[in-house]
Write a structure and sequence with these properties.
The complex is a heterodimer. Chain A is an alpha/beta fold. Chain A has seven helices and seven strands; from the N terminus they run E-H-E-H-E-H-E-H-E-E-H-H-E-H. In chain A, the strands form two sheets. In chain A, strands 3-2-1-4-5 form a five-stranded parallel sheet, sandwiched between helices. In chain B, helix 2 links the parallel strand 2 and strand 3. Classes of the chains: A alpha/beta, B alpha/beta. At the A-B interface, loops of A face helix 9 of B.
Chain lengths: 201, 253
């Protein structure tokens, strides 16, 4: 089960889950376009991809920008000659707070990156995938989209599945006994984002 | 990454169809196979030997706890350990479709005995060996019949829905033993069992199933091989209690 000869574009590749995905893809033989808002972080992941034996491209990308997403997709396709896989894992630091404490700007930023980013990146990569008659798009969701979490209204909304009712609750979530099975949802991540989330500002 | 090298995998219903496909694809990946079936597994073992790997065949009636125990013991005698169990044996092709109130009572009971109690029996037999191996992976074959709610075969649909509940509850019981329990929910796979199940209505049924899928072709046994290999390998070490639909995008759980 290898990815030899395939090319992937990964958003949020500058750390956490997506850096690990980038390196795993490289080990499986894929070329990886490492996109992140932070240029140094994207470059470091590209270095790790190269060290793992993969071709790499380091790109700065704000996934909320239509022009930026189109540019990185085209650049990846130009560099690798193809684009088979999109992983959208970019996620902003959304400050925890009740609905009353959440500012419109914070809310908007979470939606811009988690949701609009998924839309724009899909629009950017799909022409290449359709021309090649195949491809795979992976959005990183979260269990919080299912179980809800007090103080994380915007995040829970975005990280649930399309069509899901956001289930943010005022109390800590109960175990989802008897719930429907979950799909491709990541648990709380042992990565920088979670540490930022938990540390008091 | 999807390494199954030297893992010992017991497969029920391995004489043909999906069970045979799993036996062959897993041995090609380096696994060792214990093939159990109420029918003769000679053809499966022949195909396994062509991959240059080892396999043992066992006569198995999953409705009989002692028979399930004997299968696991035969595997332990041959290979000294057990890493995975695929609960694939099921009454399917032999069942008669029809309205819910026309199902023969004996056939209803037989569907539950094989498709549900059979999995319980095999899990009871396999778990002590997996505990000794410090972990394991159990894969139960559920069905689109349960995730979609297939009509006109209510005994089959109900039995496969029970498989999903069994998967979730058992996963919670065995997490502490590092034994993972997951289910696959395929749509109708092109196998003899499916041909027997739909009989004269096969072409129409396959066409209906295909048009409700996102990917517009029917499901082949080989389409399930990758997901099975992933669930047995350590690549899925944190995945348990899940029902994974391999149905070309029919239901989206």
């Amino acid at each position: 089960m290898q990815l030899a000869g395939k090319a992937a574009l990964i958003s949020g590749a500058g750390g956490g889950i997506c850096r690990a995905i980038a390196v795993a893809f490289a080990e499986a033989g894929a070329a990886v376009a490492c996109c992140d808002l932070n240029p140094e972080a994207a470059a470091e992941t590209a270095r790790l991809v190269t060290a793992a034996g993969g071709r790499a491209l380091s790109q700065v990308c704000d996934v909320a920008s239509e022009a930026a997403t189109r540019d990185v997709a085209n650049a990846a396709h130009d560099a690798f000659g193809r684009l088979d896989i999109l992983v959208h894992g970019a996620a902003p630091h959304d400050p925890s707070g009740t609905v009353l404490e959440t500012t419109l700007a914070d809310w908007q930023r979470v939606l811009d990156i988690n949701l609009t980013g998924a839309f724009l990146l899909s629009r950017a990569v799909l022409p290449h995938m359709i021309a090649a008659e195949g491809g795979s798009i992976i959005f990183i969701a979260s269990q919080l989209g299912r179980v809800g979490s007090a103080g994380r209204a915007a995040y829970c909304l975005c990280r649930g599945e399309p069509g899901d009712r956001p289930q943010t609750r005022a109390r800590p979530p109960r175990p989802a006994f008897g719930d429907r099975p979950r799909r491709r949802l990541s648990g709380e991540r042992g990565c920088e984002l979670c540490h930022r989330q938990r540390s008091p500002d | 990454m999807l390494d199954v090298q030297d893992k010992v995998v017991a497969i029920t219903g391995a004489a043909r169809g999906l069970g045979q496909e799993f036996a062959v694809s897993l041995t090609a990946g380096g696994a060792r196979i214990v093939a159990g079936d109420i029918n003769d597994c000679a053809e499966t073992l022949d195909l396994v030997s062509k991959t240059g790997r080892e396999g043992v065949g066992v006569k198995l009636d999953v409705t009989d706890a002692a028979s399930a125990q004997a299968m696991i013991e035969a595997g332990l005698r041959a290979f000294g350990r057990l890493d995975a169990l695929i609960n694939n044996a099921a009454l399917y092709g032999a069942l008669h479709g029809g309205r819910f109130d026309g199902i023969d009572e004996a056939e209803w009971d037989a569907a539950m005995a094989v498709n549900v109690k059979g999995i319980w029996n095999c899990c009871k037999a396999a778990v002590p060996a997996m505990r000794k191996a410090d972990g394991g992976s159990i894969i139960n074959i559920a069905s689109l019949a349960a995730t979609y709610g297939m009509p006109y075969g209510l005994h089959y649909t109900t039995s496969k829905a029970a498989v999903i509940g069994l998967t979730r509850g058992l996963a919670r019981e065995l997490g502490r033993d590092r034994i993972r329990v997951n289910a696959l929910a395929p749509s109708a796979v092109i196998t003899e069992g499916t041909r027997e199940f739909f009989g004269a209505k096969l072409d129409r049924a396959l066409d209906t199933i295909k048009t409700s899928q996102t990917i517009q072709r029917n499901l082949m046994p080989s389409d399930l091989a990758g997901t099975v290999q992933w669930l047995i390998s350590d690549a899925s070490a944190f995945v348990t209690g899940q029902t994974i639909a391999v149905d070309g995008g029919t239901v989206m759980l």
